[in-house]
Automatic annotation (TrEMBL), chain A:
<protein>
    <submittedName>
        <fullName>Protein ABIL1</fullName>
    </submittedName>
</protein>
<dbReference type="InterPro" id="IPR028457">
    <property type="entry name" value="ABI"/>
</dbReference>
<comment type="similarity">
    <text>Belongs to the ABI family.</text>
</comment>
<comment type="function">
    <text>Involved in regulation of actin and microtubule organization. Part of a WAVE complex that activates the Arp2/3 complex.</text>
</comment>
TrEMBL record, chain B:
<dbReference type="GO" id="GO:0008064">
    <property type="term" value="P:regulation of actin polymerization or depolymerization"/>
</dbReference>
<keyword id="KW-0963">Cytoplasm</keyword>
<comment type="similarity">
    <text>Belongs to the BRK1 family.</text>
</comment>
<feature type="coiled-coil region">
    <location>
        <begin position="45"/>
        <end position="79"/>
    </location>
</feature>
<dbReference type="InterPro" id="IPR033378">
    <property type="entry name" value="BRICK1"/>
</dbReference>
<dbReference type="GO" id="GO:0007015">
    <property type="term" value="P:actin filament organization"/>
</dbReference>
<protein>
    <recommendedName>
        <fullName>Protein BRICK 1</fullName>
    </recommendedName>
</protein>
<dbReference type="GO" id="GO:0042802">
    <property type="term" value="F:identical protein binding"/>
</dbReference>
<keyword id="KW-0206">Cytoskeleton</keyword>
Length: 273, 85
């Protein structure tokens, strides 16, 4: 600031010095001496002006560099704050997604292979159980839809539909003929027990509705696995480390025989009708 | 006598011309340096203008970023339950 003020004051000083030199050269006899003094004064004034201008330029440049450095530092701090906020935002988003994922029910198996659960979590296929097949089917249907899967496409639906159709078609005519010979492998009533802890195990439990109505027509009196080896849940395919517990051979053969018999009953119902 | 006076006049004229040339040379030096000083001032003005413009732009950007950060921090501080575990 002082240098700039001195630089501003240097202009009127130069004007006043020029007027004095002109008057002295005109009125003074020793003109050479006046001329020499004027030359010296001009040189010194020029050097003084250059010095002042250099100082002002240097200080202004230094001030600008300092300001630029401060602005860069503040920009760095602002970017740091921005990164912190972005981290917090990402964290909240991830937490929200995680909570939503925990709440959502994602079915592990295709709904075609999901059987509905019964009330007691057991599937009885016993003639002694006097149950209404429609009620059991409705209960199974209610249990089967935790994720709003339509019951029309589940295994139980297929079983119940086939059972109903066969019951309507052949009431008692077929009971005494073909089905009176129970197969050796299907001479027992099987129970599908399940563990009540896991939802997957619930979904994999089998429920066979319309057992009461079917049994007298088919003449099936099966008893199997009461206190013996239970048919545990079919584990998911996602976890290969766990041992996949499959149904024993007997139950598979029973199911296959059951389906085969239903198909035979269908055919014969068509012939009868 | 007249001849000596003529010689003296010629010498004086010669000296005067030489002095005049020296003065002109001095004046040319002074004017050259003043022009160089003027060019330095022009260059300094252009450089300082560009530096000030860049600094102004940086300050504008920084101001907008700080305003955005202020709004974001205000939004975050309004819902502290989001960060509670």
């Amino acid at each position: 600031m002082d240098e700039s003020i001195e630089l501003k004051n240097l202009r009127p000083q130069l004007y006043s010095a020029a007027e004095y030199c002109e008057k002295s050269y005109l009125h003074n006899e020793q003109k050479q001496m006046v001329l020499d003094n004027l030359k010296d004064y001009a040189v010194r004034a020029l050097v003084n002006a250059v010095d002042h201008l250099g100082t002002v330029a240097y200080k202004l440049t230094d001030l600008l560099e300092q300001q630029t450095l401060e602005v860069s530092t503040i920009e760095l701090k602002a970017s740091c704050l921005n990164q912190k906020l972005l981290t917090c935002q990402t964290y909240t988003d991830k937490e929200g997604i995680r909570q939503q994922q925990l709440l959502a029910f994602i079915p592990r198996h295709h709904k075609h292979y999901i059987l509905p659960n019964s009330v007691s979590k057991k599937v009885h296929f016993s003639p002694q159980v006097q149950t209404d097949p429609r009620q059991t089917y409705l209960h199974a249907k209610a249990r089967l839809q935790p994720s709003d899967t339509p019951a029309s496409k589940t295994l139980s639906w297929h079983l119940s539909s086939e059972t109903k159709s066969t019951l309507k078609g052949t009431s008692q005519t077929l009971a005494s003929n073909e089905i009176s010979k129970p197969p050796a492998s299907a001479s027992e009533v099987f129970q599908l027990l399940e563990n009540g802890d896991n939802a997957r195990e619930k979904s994999s439990a089998a429920l066979f509705p319309a057992s009461n109505a079917l049994v007298p027509s088919l003449g099936i009196t099966h008893r199997e696995l009461e206190g013996s080896k239970p048919l545990t849940a079919f584990r998911s395919f996602d976890n290969p480390k766990r041992d996949i517990i499959r149904a024993p051979v007997r139950s598979k053969s029973v199911l296959s025989s059951f389906f085969v018999k239903q198909k035979q009953m269908k055919l014969k119902a068509g012939y009868v009708a | 006598m007249a001849r000596a006076g003529g010689i003296t006049n010629a010498v004086n004229v010669g000296i005067a011309v030489q002095a005049d040339w020296e003065n002109r040379e001095f004046i040319s030096h002074i004017s050259l340096n003043v022009r160089r000083l003027f060019e330095f001032l022009l260059q300094f003005e252009a450089t300082t203008k560009s530096k000030l413009a860049s600094l102004n732009e940086k300050l504008d950007t920084l101001e907008r970023r700080l305003e955005l950060l202020e709004v974001q921090v205000g939004t975050a501080s309004a819902n502290p339950s989001l960060f509670s575990t």
